[in-house]
Amino acid sequence: MTEHTRTDGLPGIDEPPLPQILERARPRNERMAAGKIECNACPVLCQIAPGRTGACDRYANHEGTLVRVDPVVMLRRQIAEGEPELVAFAERAALPAPEGETPAAAEAGAAWSGDLLHADQVFVTGIGSSTTYPDYKPAPFIVGSKADGVDMVTVVTEGIFSYCSFKLKIDTDRYLGPEQANVRCKGEVVGHVTTAEYGSQMLSLGGVHHLTGGSKKEGRVTLEVMQALGNKAAVELTIDGGSQIVVQAGRAPIVNGAEEQRMRVGCGSATVGIFARQLYGLADEVVVVDDHITGVLTEHQAGRCLDMRPSGIKVRGRKSTPGRYFQVANPGTGWGGTDIADPLSIIEGWDGAVAWPGLRLLMTSTTGEHAAWYVLDETLTPREEAMPQALHAIVERIGENCEPSLCTVLFLGGAGGSLRAGVTENPVLLTRSIKQALVNVTCGGAPAYVWPGGGITVMTDVMRMPDHSFGTVPTPALVAPIEFSMRLDDFRALGGHVDHVRPLEEVLRHGAWHNDGAPVARRWLQAPAGNPWPLGRPPVIG
Asked: Which of 138, 152, 221, 460 is 20 to 30 A from 188 via CA?
């Protein structure tokens, strides 16, 4: 047994009851103890003792046979109301239902035979399918089916991704850290802060340099972060010179212990412009404090178009176009993503020849979370007063127009040699076919965006993928599902492994092409309603 192999046993070896039997174990050599088998599903080459799993927890030695512990995930097409033909089909075919759901035929005691009346209602994903390592092998599943009467092929595999990362879009008005700053987990650098976008802070985490270019601990921690993010779990990160954050796909970020609520409606200038007419007549001056672009209503073109009287306000920072100021304060977690707690600190003073006692000033942030109402006294000093209800309603409307803060986690991976060789012996033909929109690329059945340029660089939202789609191997590398769907004629034209195409019905009955006829464990999921069906829809190509 090598140091890579787990020794904590194989919990639930009989669950699922039909493990996928693989012919990828090498015979025991004289260096291995009796009963061990060598797995070559990845470069680690674990020597696995009976009843144990490999280092990835995905393969096991079950009575001398290498088995894949996880089931293959199958998607069942969503059946919408008003589709009686599909409903009737589901009842006739008695398709296995998602967990917790029993189809009508099953309730009647009918056993599903594996026959499909409409093969385009089932999609085999790469989750649990196994890999093509060491690269030259055809993909574990090359499935033939029909979509709208057209003969289709889907090449299904799990990729071992060394070249991959996660891009995080964190909706928050808070300052998380300086651009290019290191992002750490457990003290190890796992990524960096990248450019801020409209109302969001962006992080880039993972990547081959962190996986393989640093210490063993850096690679291990980076892989842990990537697997957790891909599987929609929470991860705690710290940013050099910035904040401590907790991020999780589909959840609000937690910044320095406080859960974020709102994404800004716009920058300070945009907020002034959007609400200028509603503010007109209720305030003599409005300042929307923002780390990037602070807006001043009377100087802004919106105020000029409304013929508002100049207020004589003098705002700190670098003046851009009229009514727009940069660098009014340092970045931070205070008003408008700045480091200020007192909004008056950005006001240098008032022009006595222009301003007047009684001038009414509203100051607010871009999310409406911070707002204050002032009236100038006889010395032109702002005095805070209770905000009128009409102004309070507009500040609330600013907040209403701010979308909820969320973390979006995008998987970005380069599909390299092993993946392409699993499709064809001439991999460049697959790349060309994808760029020609002849091949639809999905990840766990979820739509994937294919980046322009060379290679096959795919990106997908993990929230659109099934739960627990990602695994790891201790090389270290991430394991992720990927599927290539195309017409059979196009598969043949790109030199695909046509001899290994198996009808979907046969795959459902018997499993992967390389097993000995033993049935494969399956897990059925209902295809998410928001995802296009992988077969019969045009691919998304950059």
From this structure: 460
Other beta carbons within 10 Å of 27: 7
Average pLDDT over residues 337-354: 96
**Beta strand segments in 69-216, E:** 72-76, 122-124, 141-147, 150-161, 164-171, 182-185, 188-193, 200-206
Q: Which residue has the tokens 């962190």?
A: 210
Torsions phi, psi for 91 (to 5 deg): -70, -40
**427-436 b/e (C-beta count within 10 Å ≥ 16 → b):** bebbbebbbe
| DSSP reduced 3-state for 315 | strand
The tens digit of pLDDT for each residue in 214-229 reads 999 999 999 999 999 9
What is the rounded distance in angstroms from the CA atom of residue 528 to the CA atom of residue 166?
A: 22
Q: What is the mean pLDDT of residues 171-183?
A: 93
Unique residue bearing structure tokens 């907790």: 246
Structural contact between residues 274 and 286, judged by C-beta atoms closer than 8 angstroms: no
Q: Whole-angstrom Cα distance, residue 278 to residue 98?
A: 51
- Number of helical (H) and strand (E) elements in the chain, helices listed first: 11, 36
Structure tokens at 187: 């003290």
Which of 155, 129, 127 shows the shortest CA–CA distance to 467? 127
Where is pLDDT greater, at 12 or 146? Answer: 146
Write the DSSP assignment of 52-87 as a string of letters.
Answer: -B-TTSSEEEETTEEEE-SPEEEEEPP--TT-HHHH
CA–CA distance, 409 with 246 (Å, rounded to integer): 13
Using DSSP's 3-state secondary structure scheme, residue 447 falls into strand
CA 120 to chain centre: 27
pLDDT band of 120, cuts 50, 70, 90: low
Indicate left, alpha or beta for 285 from its phi (over 0: left) and psi (-120 to 50: alpha): beta
Comparing C-alpha atoms, which of 114, 369, 151, 331 is closest to residue 241? Answer: 331
Q: Are 159 and 479 in contact (CB under 8 A)?
A: yes
Tens of pLDDT, residue by residue over 15-33, are 333 344 454 445 545 566 7
List the structure tokens of 283. 């305030």
Bridge-based pairing state of the strands 59-62 and 477-487: unpaired
* 280/27: higher pLDDT: 280
Question: Alpha-carbon distance 73 to 466, whole Å?
Answer: 9
For range 421-440, the mean pLDDT: 93
| pTM, full prediction | 0.82
